[in-house]
TrEMBL record:
Keywords: Aminotransferase, Iron, Iron-sulfur, Metal-binding, Pyridoxal phosphate, Transferase
Lineage of producing organism: Bacteria, Pseudomonadati, Pseudomonadota, Gammaproteobacteria, Alteromonadales
Catalysis: reaction(s): (sulfur carrier)-H + L-cysteine = (sulfur carrier)-SH + L-alanine
Protein name as it appears in the record: cysteine desulfurase
Recorded superkingdom: Bacteria
Enzyme class at the top of the EC tree: transferase
EC number: 2.8.1.7
Signal peptide per UniProt: none
Cofactor requirements of the protein: pyridoxal 5'-phosphate
Entry-linked Gene3D superfamilies: 1.10.260.50, Aspartate Aminotransferase, domain 1, Rhodanese-like domain, Ribonuclease Z/Hydroxyacylglutathione hydrolase-like, Type I PLP-dependent aspartate aminotransferase-like (Major domain)
UniProt entry tagged with the keyword Iron-sulfur: yes
Length: 706
């Protein structure tokens, strides 16, 4: 299918990942540029150029004190919040080490306290300096309740033996805001002198600060979280509290942090502080406006995703963060289609099932499925109403694309014309599940179902009104197997009764003619549309899918679903050179394989190694075939407008595409393309192995299309 396309320009981007980083405001970028071009002196120099630089440095520090309400104490410019955290932890633990060496305290049975939902920089810094300084304290993560608020009883219990307490003002994943007034009361009642650090990164610009009126000892901040550039931040240190420089050698920052100051970054903070202090400015919106934005976005999300569940209580959160999960949908599917719609959000947990889920949501006791599929949408206080309006419209478009792909069920009777036909490969980690679909007959069979994909398959059946012919497995399994459970879910759709625990239906006839290439005994066949599915073996069977049935022609083996079977001898007797072998496990993303590869025979081609300029030239040629390997919903939201022929072939449908077109496109120039370049790299490797001899892929993905 050739599709016309429009790629939205950068200016059309809706950026809703501000808790990760923010764009740089125009006036802040101008301040950085001006400083780099005109005020480039070293603040430590005594000449006029140096004095001009010193003025910016000193005035920024003065404005910063006003912003955070710190008339006394130190305000030290750093490279960012991570350096500030490291400095605070080093200072507190060095102080404890000195007191122990002087015999003032006993380090035995001491603890280092931090919130269980703290940014990973905090516990890792505590562990690092605890080991390096030989403190030997025990790290204790203070638990939180389901609202993300710290357990004050546990905190109070450990405080008498604490060498340091680390909490955060606002959580970066959920936006949950701790009650710092109550925390201070609890901490100072039990441990008046314990060093207390509060990560204030996500609070700046979203709430009032008056650090001089509190007993917070250390407060790190970061510029790039509030429309400044990366590489600049600052650390507040309360007067007379322990301090040990992290960087020494030069005496800058009154000896508290050596190294020539990042004056362009400090100038950025200067402009930021001026905006924050200007009561007449209209860049940063009041809390009432930010709350209205959140309500509008949440209404759009709930309309698009009726099964959406929030992972935090709004009353305990700053108004710029929404963390949610959609029942039955992986965060990756939502992120990918949002990205295609030019909406930038992030996964509240990992986007790969191989990586840890959201430790923040786990600590809050949120259900597993919500922790695994969380999405974080975060905007900044400079967000405009027009941006929110466009975001809501795009969310609606993205949800419509997900419904067309049957990943999101509609509450109406829409009958979407799915493009799925033939063999479809679904994956979870390295495990593969196969759907055999006959689009015209509305029939489907499942081979080697995976528990994590059961709901997705159920949605597809309901969406397309498939009649399920069989739920099969290549493993010996009992009645509690995934195949058996999925069969129970789909019985209403027409599952035939199975004659054994691997799902082979009673209706599978015993008098089917065996495929030409198969030299092994088959146990009848099952019709899925106009193809025959054969079973070979009983305890750990393999399944053979024939070519479409035609009058006066013999059946051939197009696909073999081999489970964990890797015996060349058995597979040589069951399949042919042209057969696509589909394994159950695929650690290295080979997608599928061929008999020649199992027999260690040379086959396939090498990827074409061409430079970016030649690759772009290929994309301008009508004879080039561009394989857009993004999922159907991504392609629908942002199709590709190129002179070359564009075909949407997600990795799920790649093996069927290879079988259908390996002779037609074997020598044609092919460029594989996806969002980031990861999926296209996989597709290009697979195509070359299967004999497509003029294949390249666009490293960097959609970002490289102008």
């Amino acid at each position: 299918m050739v599709t016309p396309v429009h790629i939205r320009p950068k200016a059309d981007e809706i950026y809703l990942d501000c808790n990760a980083t923010t764009p740089v405001l125009r006036q802040i970028a101008h301040a950085v540029s001006h400083t780099m071009e005109q005020v480039f002196g070293n603040p430590s120099s005594s000449h006029i150029t140096g004095l001009q630089a010193r003025y910016i440095l000193d005035n920024t520090r003065r404005l910063g004190r006003e912003v955070i309400g710190a008339g006394s104490g130190h305000l030290v410019f750093t490279s960012g919040a991570t350096e500030g955290i490291q400095t605070a932890v080093l200072s507190a633990l060095s102080h404890a080490r000195k007191r122990s060496d002087a015999g003032e305290i006993d380090l035995q049975d001491t603890v280092l306290l931090y919130g269980a939902t703290e940014h990973k920089a905090v516990p890792q810094a505590l562990a690092h300096w605890n080991t390096l300084l030989g403190i030997g304290a025990r790290l204790v993560a203070v638990p939180v309740d389901q609202n993300g608020l710290l357990d004050l009883d546990v905190l109070s219990h450990h405080l008498p033996r604490a060498l340091m307490v680390c909490t955060m003002a606002v959580n970066n994943e959920t936006g949950v805001r701790q009650d710092l007034t109550t925390l201070e009361r609890v901490i100072r009642q039990a441990a008046p002198e314990v060093p207390w650090m509060v990560d204030c990164v996500q609070l700046l610009g979203k709430g009032n600060l008056n650090l001089a009126a509190s007993s917070i000892d250390y407060a790190p901040f970061s510029g790039h979280k509030l429309y400044g550039p990366k590489g600049i931040g600052f650390l507040y240190v309360r007067e007379q509290r322990p301090f040990t420089p992290l960087i020494i050698g030069g005496g800058q920052e009154q000896g508290l942090r050596s190294g020539t100051e990042n004056l362009p970054g400090i100038a950025a903070l200067h402009t930021l502080f001026e905006l924050l202090l200007d009561e007449k400015q209209q860049v940063f919106k009041p809390v009432s406006t930010l709350n209205r934005y959140r309500e509008q976005l949440l209404a759009a999300l709930r309309s698009a995703f009726p099964s959406l569940e929030l992972n935090h209580a709004l009353e305990y959160s700053v108004p710029t963060t929404l963390n949610f999960s959609v029942r039955g949908m992986a965060s990756r599917d939502i992120m990918d289609v949002f990205d295609a719609a030019n909406i930038r959000v992030s996964s509240g947990s990992a986007c790969s099932s191989k990586v840890t889920r959201s430790f923040v949501l786990d600590a809050m006791g949120i259900e597993d499925w919500r922790s695994q599929s969380a999405i974080r949408l975060s905007f900044g206080p400079a967000t405009e109403q027009a941006t929110v309006d466009v975001a809501c419209q795009r969310i609606k478009e993205a949800a419509q694309a997900l419904r067309h792909s049957c990943l999101l069920l509609s509450d109406t009777n829409e009958d979407f014309d799915s493009e799925l036909d033939g063999v479809v490969q679904l994956r979870f980690d390295a495990q593969c599940c196969y759907l055999i679909i006959d689009r015209a007959a509305r029939e489907l069979a499942v081979i080697d179902p995976i528990p994590q994909l059961a709901e997705r398959i159920e949605k597809l059946v309901a969406c397309q009104h498939y009649r399920v012919k069989a739920i099969l497995t290549t493993e010996q399994q009992g009645p509690e197997s995934t195949a058996a459970m999925l069969a129970q879910l789909l019985c209403a759709s027409g599952c035939d009764a199975a004659r054994d625990n691997v799902g082979w239906p009673l209706t599978a006839t015993a008098d089917c003619s065996t495929p030409v290439e198969c030299q092994l005994a088959t146990e009848g066949c099952l019709l899925v549309g106009n193809r025959r599915l054969y079973r070979v073996g009983s305890r750990q069977p393999i399944y053979l899918l024939s070519s479409p049935i035609a009058p006066h022609t013999e059946a051939h083996v197009d696909f073999a679903f081999i489970g964990e079977q890797a015996s060349p001898q058995l597979l040589n007797a069951a399949a042919a050179e042209h057969t696509v072998l589909c394994p159950k496990w695929d650690e290295s993303f080979t997608i599928a394989t061929r008999l020649q590869e199992l027999n260690d025979m040379p086959c396939g081609c090498q990827l074409v190694d061409i430079g970016p300029e030649q690759q772009q030239e290929w994309l301008r040629r009508p004879e080039t075939l561009v394989l857009d390997v993004r999922e159907q919903q991504e392609h629908q939201v942002t199709p590709l407008d190129l002179p070359a022929q564009v075909v949407n072939v997600p990795l799920t449908r790649l093996i069927q595409f290879i079988y259908d077109h390996r002779e037609e496109f074997a020598d044609r120039p092919v460029v594989c393309l996806c969002r980031s370049g990861n999926r296209s790299a996989v597709a290009a490797q697979v195509l070359s192995r299967f004999g497509f001899c003029n294949v390249s892929h666009l490293a960097g993905g959609m970002a490289l299309l102008g």
